[in-house]
Amino acid sequence: METESQPLFFREIMEQPRVLANTLAQYLGPGYCLKMNLPPLDDLGIARITKVYLTACGTSFHAALTARYLIEELAEIPAVVEQASESGQHQLLVDSGTLAVAVSQSGRSRETLYAMGEAKRKGAMTLALVNDADSPLARAADGRLTTLAGRVTPHSSTKAFTSQALVLGLLAFRIAKSRGLLKDSFKEEIQPFGRIAETVRGALVKCQGQVEPVARLLSSHSRVFILAKGNLLPMVYEGALKLKEVARFHAEGYSAGEFGHGPLALASPDTPVALMAFSDSHNGHGSFTELARALRSRGAPLVLFAEDGPRKDPELLKLADCAVLLPPAPPRLRPLTALMPLQLLACALGQLRGLDVDRPGGLLSEGSVPDGPEGRPEIFLGTGPTAARRGLEH
Ligand code: M6R
């Protein structure tokens, strides 16, 4: 039960099931009917999309990363995800067959506006995914999708992130449908999304009491690596960002597969490592158990985030100093359940460190764009080479 005396950050975490339910209701009707129009594109126009280019900053960038897995898997077209701040630093390969999706909670991040403007200039159809439908980004895009996260803390994004990931997932279904894919299996495939609110609520309830020991373990150290594979990887990037900005704790989200190619050298009794090990599929690479053994042999304290139930790996559990077990979730919703303990951990660790978790640090306020004169968006104020060539550097 949330009360006014609890930090807003915590209350926003707990609000996520409700926000997801509202956002879902906007796009998924009875009988799993997808109500997602992308004007000016009609069905034929959507079917002609050959590539999706997603661009965003910070937490919104992590939401965009989640979309890549679903767009490639369901819509069977390439999805390229770029940090908006890198746009203008290389040749942007988009054209009229590209759907450029700019993701921004505020709709005011300068870099995201710039990146979307560049994609538009090159002929891409632009779509803004925003929480504020009247923001500069929403007004500048050809089409818009909205999250219904309500009022959000401007700094530490939680509910905006999960609802962005949901809308991007539904967008993957929308493109797939127009491309004539999932003909017989559409309802069956989209069904788990219909229960997204309950699934996330279940994860929050189950892990709430389990993050405190992890926060205590971390509080006696100064950094942590959080490792994952596949579609859980964006979640450890996002969890690490929350730990940095809310708990002011040095956390690195890292690919579990890449960790054994150098960073393993840092594993020591001073450096805890957390594994987001929901599935120990080898795919020809090393297993989590093998990695956990290597970490233990270097004396690194080990934290395990895993699913409870029959998939639970007793050997991995035995190797861990502490574990957070989540309810089993459908594979495409696992990223969202996986994030819940990391958000709660950022809150618990921040409080344990005596911080006001509602006053995170780390945003350059000049990075966001106010409405211009007469409410017109001031966009294309990039700082990259393209902007410089166009005389826009300032
Ligand atoms: O409003 P935007 O989504 O464009 O903001 C992008 C980032 O500045 C934002 O997500 C930032 O990373 C937050 N501090 C995350 O909690």
Secondary structure layout plus pairing:
Layout: H1 8-14, H2 16-27, E1 28-29, E2 33-34, H3 43-47, E3 51-56, H4 58-75, E4 79-83, E5 98-104, H5 110-121, E6 125-130, H6 136-140, E7 143-146, H7 159-178, H8 186-194, H9 196-208, H10 211-219, E8 223-228, H11 233-247, E9 250-255, H12 256-259, E10 273-276, H13 288-297, E11 302-307, H14 314-319, E12 322-326, H15 334-352, H16 385-389
Parallel strand pairs: 3-4, 3-5, 5-6, 6-7, 8-9, 8-10, 10-11, 11-12
Antiparallel strand pairs: 1-2
Bound molecules: 5-amino-5-deoxy-1-O-phosphono-D-mannitol.
Describe the structure.
By secondary structure, the protein is α/β, with parallel strands linked by helices. It folds into 2 domains: 196 residues, Glucose-6-phosphate isomerase like protein, domain 1 (Rossmann fold); 152 residues, Glucose-6-phosphate isomerase like protein, domain 1 (Rossmann fold), CATH 3.40.50. The protein is 43% helix and 15% strand. The radius of gyration is 21 Å and the shape is globular. The C terminus is likely disordered. The structure holds 5-amino-5-deoxy-1-O-phosphono-D-mannitol. 5-amino-5-deoxy-1-O-phosphono-D-mannitol binds next to helix 4.
